[in-house]
Amino acid sequence: MSFEADLSPASVVDLVFPLTGRSVPRDYTQALHAALQQELPWLAQEARTGIHPLKLVQGSTPGPVCLLSARTRLLLRLPRERVAAARGLMGRTLAVDGHPLQLGEPHERELLPHATLYAYAVAAEGADEAAFMQTVAGELQALGVRTQTVCGKRGERPLGGRSLTTFSLMLHALSAADSLRVQEQGLGPYRLLGCGVFVPHKSAAAVGE
């Protein structure tokens, strides 16, 4: 696949913060969102913002708390015009349901076109995979994106006293322009809970992992 070299830069970037902390709740997404929202009240007003899922150390025994590795980073997907304001988080400590996370000096990471993209979780209206994929197809069509889709594992995460159903999702055979468009816009709601945030992936083989 040919990727054009003269594409305009994406309208959003990932701002990457080093983290100092030991652990977070296993179901940390709402608490992390709340802590960031307190520091950056405009987060919910920006449709293109997202919070990447944290990479956690998965213990052999499931429990309410997950450990953070020394390499865990907080990644915020932000419009370029909001990056300067978000840099003000440097040195702050977020209280994520009682678990302190101190943020180091961030750096920007440009979004790059990639033929295969992956989202660890995309929000669904229910557990029906066929209905979910139909909704995804409609969103992709509205964005003008042509791609092949592979649905992965179903999951659940807490949301205001109920469970939100999610599916992992792979998109492949994307053009360069479509790849950037999906990364900019995302798919589905709850981007600030880590849903619908797409990142490059090497192949479609590991969609269920």
Note down, in words, how this protein is organized.
The structure is a single chain. With 209 residues, the chain is α+β, with helices and mostly antiparallel strands. The protein folds into two domains: 12-110, 2-Layer Sandwich (Alpha-Beta Plaits), CATH 3.30.70.1890; 117-200, no CATH class. Helices cover 19% and strands 35% of the residues. It contains four helices and 13 strands. Strands 1, 3, 6, 7, 8 and 9 form a six-stranded antiparallel sheet that branches. Strands 11-12-10-13 form a four-stranded antiparallel sheet.
SSE blueprint:
Elements: E1 12-20, E2 23-25, H1 29-39, E3 50-51, E4 56-57, E5 65-68, E6 73-79, H2 83-86, E7 93-96, E8 99-103, E9 107-110, E10 117-124, H3 129-143, E11 148-159, E12 162-172, H4 176-185, E13 199-200
Antiparallel strand pairs: 1-6, 1-8, 1-9, 2-5, 3-6, 4-5, 7-8, 10-12, 10-13, 11-12
